[in-house]
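Quality-control log, excerpt.
Job 1 of 2 completed; input and output follow.
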Amino acid sequence: MTHLTLPASTNVTWQESLVTRQQRELRNGHRGAILWFTGLSGSGKSTLAHAVEAQLHQQGCRTFVLDGDNVRHGLCGDLGFSDKDRQENIRRIGEMAKLFMEAGVIVLTAFISPYRDDRNRVRAMVAQGDFIEIYCDTSLDICETRDVKGLYKKARAGEIRDFTGISSPYEPPSHPDMAINTGIKSLDASVQQIVSEMKSRAVF
């Protein structure tokens, strides 16, 4: 996989805010954080991210879910699924997630994000402890049985190119902050595991 090289903007100066991240977090009553859900299509990333958000919202947290398909309807609508476009997709999401976090929001991202380097690059954008990588560890067989969109069937038939897990690789996290077997563990139990981990990290 080739690394993405971006042109550097010129004639720009960083403008410091008069309101700090710490002040926003104090107002919100919790830290900003990035919960990065990764896994194969059908592994339960979106379902779990939205369920965690609902739980956090009930507890008074300021949250937002960035979902893979939704983002490709707008911000990343110009991107395909080549290696280069996948890298750019994750770079944009990482930058956006960082902005949400600096606003004191707990941002949950649900993207396949198949390459370790891309995920690690996002982790490196923020301070240690701000990025929590959650691996939805589910077998390809189980993911295919959940193929409600028919994407795996199309990929197996050669109708979709560069489909992760079939014709394009997925690199599991080497050392995720959390690994949840969503093929076995119930949704409620998975949510509680994540919420407990966030409390242990003093996110809220």
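Job 2 of 2 completed; input and output follow.
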Amino acid sequence: MFRPTHFLFALFLFSFLIEAQAARSEQIEYPTYYAHTNGISIAYQEFGNPEDDTIMLVMGLGGQLIHWDDDIVWGLVDAGFHVVRFDNRDVGWSSKLYNLDTPGVITGLRYKVGMSLGAPYKLSDMADDALGLLDYLEIESAHVVGMSMGGMIAQIMAFKSPDKVKTLTSIMSTSGAAELPQGTVELEQTNGIPTREQAIARTVRMGQQLDGKVAELSEEQWKVIGARSYDRSFYPDGYMRQLWAILDSGDRIDLLKSLQQPTLVIHGKADYLIPVEHGRHTAELVPNSRLVLIEGMGHFLDRISKPLVIKEIVSLANSNPS
């Protein structure tokens, strides 16, 4: 089971730290649509020709669809694919489950002693959301790419609906095995809900820890990322429920051993949040998977790593067309 160093202090490790899109003075806003599936509303965007093979992008913990940045999306479209990115439940513009509890002190104590945590939803429910979005869009099958928690969701999607997942790409994710090493990122303890300025400053401090070794962002670039994320959607309760879902969903060891889809596992060698051993273990479990380790990449897709990742995703998809 994936065990972060600090459970209750992880509240403000926002998804915009998962990847570092290049800071731009202007951001293009694309049309956002809504799918009503699995009892909730999912906000999504589409790019490219719907007649082409689809690549579905699944974001990580607390992540919004904008954190699959435009370079990635258009790189895949230019390679001849229809691309779908979306907000998971409880973040961005998708349904916020206001009526559900958030984890508290008792949850942390239960976690420490290995008890069930009673999360109001689990990763399998989030996988059903994504599969339901494919149904809503009348997409029979797709190449599914997940990053961090999104990789965990993508793994479950491939297990639950092998007919809908042509290929699986798991990026900077994990099998959830308890024996794997914990990350060394220092998560901040916080009191109360931060102001916009405090949240952005925390982004900068955290981002500097998650930077890789080859393409570090400046403080101003991190501020742009933090501001855009905060202004689009700021909902800490949803982040905490997603974290709760991860902690209460167990490992995926047996699930990964059973996968039959062509699978690509990508991990950065300088990932200090989910160490590279997690990627290696995932690839060891999935039969006939391909492992790609990127020198100097941290827990985000930097400007140097992105072209490599796009190339690998396209290569896998082109080798397994409709």
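Post-run check on job 2. Residues 1-25 have pLDDT under 50 and may be disordered.
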